[in-house]
Amino acid sequence: MTAPTRSTLALDIGGTKLAVGVVAPDGSVHGLRVIPTDKHEGPDAVLARLFAAGHLAIAEAGHDVGAVGISCGGPLDADTGVVMRPLNLPDWDDVPVGPLAAREFGVPAHLVNDATAGMLGEAASGAAVGARNAIYLTLSTGVGGGAVLNGLPHRGAAGNGGEFGHVMVRPFGRRCTCGRLGCLEAYASGTSIAARARDAVASATEPTVLAALDTVRAEDVVAAADAGDPLARRIWDETLDVIGQAVTDLVNTFEPDVVVLGGGVTRSGGELFDRVRRTIDATAMAPAAAAVRLERAALAPYECLVGAAVHAVTRIEETTHV
Ligand SMILES: [Zn+2]
Prior knowledge:
Low-confidence stretches: none
CATH topology of the largest domain: Nucleotidyltransferase, domain 5
Strand content: 15-25%
Strand order of the largest sheet: 3-2-1-4-7
Oligomer: single chain
Bound molecules: zinc ion
């Protein structure tokens, strides 16, 4: 792989935020902008604001841009650049984001699953540099995943491989956004942590500081658990247990060099990493447990932007050199 000489415009489409930046060949991000998605406006209006922010980023960075890389929640078709009703953007029904971006900016544009992008960013210039086998898990509004296997990004048949948020951690458990029961995402996303706490508060027979809050957010649960609130402690303990179990399954399955954890839930503090590490050491197969490093996403919160640029450059090289 030859080093790219031109920068890449990177666009990250999230359910709550749009992030835009120009990624230089050395991985540095310029002209960074983060704006609300305001998804109720629909895909046409959101894309118009996203593209306008992209033009501003290019102007501010002053770089020559040779490609556009777009990261978005799945499902999507990475080959055609079409977004197919992501769980966090349910109105986006077969929206050809890739072709629209290519026409808007006059350069090739490539679409990639946002968690796959996070993995690519961390592998290129973050916590997974040099790893032949790496797993990335983002614990955010939802739970996403990506993998590098034998030195290559794992894409799956249509670019949606590595949906580690939808591995089962509680058979017949809570209903997930995907419709299945008991997925990791139904317990460990910020949304699910808050929802589980609200359910527990509604049926609580014990006093809890969470009962006094108008809206319970995941960070409120973590803060209350840290302060010794028993109800919050139970919710957070169960969350840490299921994350530890899921990561242990991934360690056993792939025997990775490194597992990288990113997303807002990981900003809760060191307890999450300590507990997951202890669960791996106590319950994973011994050689896999001994081999694996557990790391915080080094590029957070912009690993998806860097990874979207890496993906675009890689796909252009593949189509140019084969
Ligand atoms: Zn699911």
